[in-house]
Amino acid sequence: LWRFRLFRADFAAATELTEELLRLARDIGNTDFLIEAHFAAGATAFWRGEMIAVQDNLQRVVSMYDPNSHR
User: Fold this and answer.
1) How far is CA 32 from the centre of its chain?
2) Region of residue 29 (left: phi > 0; alpha: psi -120 to 50; beta: else)
3) pLDDT in tens, 8-35
């Protein structure tokens, strides 16, 4: 659903969905979900022109990514 909203340029809805993804991932405490949620937040921020948020979210993705366990 997030990707659909993003590709339809419905950035307000995409942002709401990324906030929900981040909240759910934090509540679950799963690193894999957090990586995906921060990637979604970074991609959404990119299309909104919010480059500081892009950098923040994608740096979080890189810091959590472990090549040995995320193949």
Assistant:
1) 11
2) left
3) 999 999 999 999 999 999 999 999 999 9
Cβ atoms of 34 and 45 within 8 Å: the answer is: no
Structure tokens at 14: 């995409």
26: Cβ contacts below 8 Å, ≥ 6 apart: 34
* Residue 49 · residue 65 · CB < 8 Å: no
Q: How large is the C-alpha radius of gyration of the chain?
A: 12
Backbone φ and ψ for 9, nearest 5 degrees, come out as 60, 30
Query: Two tokens at 20?
Result: 């929900």
Helix (H/G/I), strand (E/B), else coil: 70: coil
What CA–CA distance (Å, rounded) separates 15 from 68? 31
